[in-house]
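hey can u check if this looks right to u? its 223 residues, i copy pasted from the old doc so theres a chance i mangled smth
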Amino acid sequence: MIDQGPHHQDLAHIRGLMERSTRFLSLSGLSGMFAGVVALLGALVARERYEELILASGGIGLRGAGEGARYLESHVLTTAWDLVLLAALVLVLAVSGAAWFTWRRARRTGQGLWDPSARRLAWNLAIPLVSGGLFCLAMLWHGNVALVAPATLVFYGLALLNASKYTLDEIRWLGISEVVLGLLATAWVGAGLLFWALGFGVLHIVYGGLMWYRHESHGNDAP
């Protein structure tokens, strides 16, 4: 019987090359863990302001009449935009750390950080992510602050699902988890920051750790 071993190895090598040409496989699990830690620290900093925001916004429709209502509306919106700025800072730090860890792994695996597969990943991630961000800003503008945290989780999960076909399989399950958590958060809107910390903090650390263990631990950088 003819030994098919070398042929199977060649086919596996070809499949690996084809997969690397269509999927960005150098995403580092450490980037997810770093983003999770940054998100938890951000949630800790925002806790007092968020509780103040929920208590204040719960007492008015944010479009009430009278001097007191207008003052409270202004205070709520000011607090909300302070939290938006904090969230933006968390995002910048998380993305910067993720880019650095991923660049380091891409250099080890020989895959470019901004090759065609990375661009496809970024594009498919950005469409629902930017749409969700603009939608959440519109919710804040109209005073619907309680549902912003659940909405960010749902849109982020949908963005991950949309981009998951271009990267590691764990991203798909992270996206599903974020969507489920965001939908659950709509039932406890007063605990939005807690769900936000679970989604952007704990889930990132868990899935990032899983990605690191499966693809990077013990010097294993295989897809």
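The first helix runs from residue 5 to 22.
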